[in-house]
Design brief:
This protein has about 80 residues and is α+β, with helices and mostly antiparallel strands. Helices cover about 25% and strands about 40% of the residues. The longest helix is centred in the middle third of the chain and has 9 residues.
Length: about 80
């Protein structure tokens, strides 16, 4: 969360288990998580009706729509 907020003007992320949720964030934040996935241990990113994973890249995922937030799931939480 600290590195993200140092590089992007986003609200403070919330954490739940391995998930990081950035409310009010958009595509810039989703792209930041994907670009930093290897370095930070991010397994997947979701925003709107799109979902990115290491195995499949970006996919349409209407069933698991995230609204007004970007959600990243990590192997381990690193602030």
């Amino acid at each position: 969360g600290t590195l993200l907020r140092a590089q992007l003007p986003v609200p403070k992320p919330s954490y739940s288990g391995k998930s990081i949720r950035v409310s009010g964030a958009g595509w810039q934040t989703a792209a930041w998580f994907v670009a930093n996935a290897d370095r930070l241990g991010i397994d997947s990113v979701a925003y709107g009706s799109r979902h990115w994973s290491r195995e499949n890249g970006w996919q349409h995922d209407a069933a698991n729509r995230t609204r007004n937030a970007v959600v990243a799931v990590m192997a381990t939480i690193k602030n």
